[in-house]
Design brief:
CATH superfamily of the largest domain: Hexapeptide repeat proteins
Distance between the termini: 126 Å
Number of strands: 18
Number of domains: 2
Order of helices and strands: HHHHHEEEEEEEEEEEEEEEEEE
Structural class: alpha/beta
Strand order of the largest sheet: 1-4-7-12-15-17-18
Number of helices: 5
CATH class of the largest domain: Mainly Beta
Radius of gyration: 41 Å
Length: 265
């Protein structure tokens, strides 16, 4: 304020020079502080660009490695749901913590079976069979009750299928019946088994049964677990089938063997 009120012409050249020197020193100190701050920031936050790149590469490499390990862990994690494990053919030990769920599900199915097996209405029978198998049963498919099935939700039935009286399906391992299949009375489709070893006898071994289009399973035949019946093939009455049957073949006996090929005669 003082210098503003004084006429600059009265200030000697010497005094003016001192003022300029003091201003220059002040500005130099400010510039020095700015430089030091800028240098500090660069050194600690933006060091050598190449080192930054290397650090970033290391981070991304570690991240990718973690992702791969996580993915592998997920792939290696076993399926926990017991019904999915059954469909995947996994052996279920007797002390499995989810074994009780199989029993509960089978008892629930039995309640629906009681209703279905005591009905005479084909529409109601199809509806109840759809509830048991958890799928839509086509109108072209017919079932003569009684039918005995322990679980039901692992059975898939195609179109124009005929299932006659008194059949038994054990389907925890999975049963697929394709279109136009004929199943005679007292046929057994058994997808479940047990180990030969006495120590492990109470474990459950599930394997699927697949009956292809237009096959005919005659009265009293038994299809064991893991068997596929080929298209147009015939299983003779009373046969016990433990091995796959090719397309267009007739098999019979215990154990079932190929008798001859199917012809158009």
């Amino acid at each position: 304020m003082f210098f503003k009120s004084v006429d600059m012409s009265c200030i000697s050249c010497k005094g003016f020079k001192r003022m300029r020197e003091r201003e220059d020193k002040t500005n130099n100190k400010k510039n020095e502080k700015k430089f030091l701050c800028h240098h500090f920031f660069n050194v600690f936050f933006f060091p050598n660009f190449e080192s930054i790149t290397q650090s970033l590469r290391s981070v991304f490499s570690s991240f990718n490695s973690i992702q791969i390990q996580t993915s592998n862990t997920k792939m290696q994690t076993p399926t926990t749901d017991i019904f999915e494990r059954l469909r995947n053919g996994e052996i279920i030990p007797p002390n499995d913590p989810q074994a009780y769920r199989m029993l509960e599900a089978c008892y629930d199915t039995k309640k629906l079976l009681m209703k279905m097996n005591n009905s005479t209405d084909p529409v109601e029978i199809r509806d109840l069979l759809g509830q048991i198998t958890n799928s839509k049963i086509d109108e072209s498919t017919a079932l003569f009750t009684p039918l005995y099935i322990n679980y039901g939700k692992h059975t898939k039935i195609g179109k124009n299928v005929f299932i006659n009286f008194d059949c038994t399906f054990l389907d925890l391992g999975g049963i697929t019946i394709e279109d136009n299949v004929l199943i005679a009375p007292k046929v057994s489709l058994l997808t479940e088994g047990h180990p030969i070893s006495p120590e492990n006898r109470h474990a459950l071994i599930p394997k699927p049964i697949h009956i292809k289009k237009n096959a005919w399973i005659c009265a009293g035949a038994t299809i064991l677990q893991g068997v596929t019946i080929g298209e147009n093939s015939i299983v003779a009455a009373g046969a016990v089938v433990s091995k796959d049957v090719p397309d267009n073949m007739i098999v019979g006996g215990i154990p079932a063997k190929i008798i001859k090929a199917v012809t158009n005669e």
